[in-house]
Amino acid sequence: MFVSRARPASVLVLVTALAAVGLGPAAGPAMAANIPVGAGSYSDTRPAGTSGPTTNTGTPVTPKLTAAARNKPVPTNDWWSSLAFQRHGDNPYSTPMYGHPLTYQATAAGLQVGYPTTPTVSGDGRQYEYAHKADLTLGLTGLNSPDTKADSWSDWTVTPYWSDGTRTLRTTIGHGLPFVYAKGTGGDARVTTAGTPEVFADQGNVLGITVAGHHYALFAPTGADWTVAGSALTAGLGGRDYFSLAVLPSRDALTAYRKYAYSFVTGSKVSWSATGGTVRATYSLTTAPQEGTETGTLQALYRHQWLNTTDALTAYTYVSPRGTMKVRESTSFTTSQQSAAVLPALPPSSGVDRARLKGHLDEVANAADPFSGAVDTYWTGKALGKLAQLVPMADQIGETATRDKLIGLLKGRLEQWFTAGGANQFSYDTSWKTLTGYPASYGSDTELNDHHFHYSYYVYAAAVVAQYDQAWAAESAWGGMVETLVRDAANPSRDDAQFPFLRGFDVYAGHSWASGHQGFAAGNNQESSSESTNLSAALVLWGSATGDTGLRDLGSYLLATESEAIGQYWFDADQQVFPASFGHDTVGMVWGSGGAYSTWWTANPEEIHGINALPLTGGSLHLSREKDAIKRNLAEMVRENGGPAVEWRDILWEFEALADPAAAKAKWDAGNAGYSPEAGESRAHTYHWINTLNSLGAPDATVTGSIPTSAVFVKGGVRTYAAHNFESVARTVTFSDGTALTVPARSTATR
Question: pLDDT tens across 242-274, in order?
Answer without folding.
Answer: 999 999 999 999 999 999 999 999 999 999 999
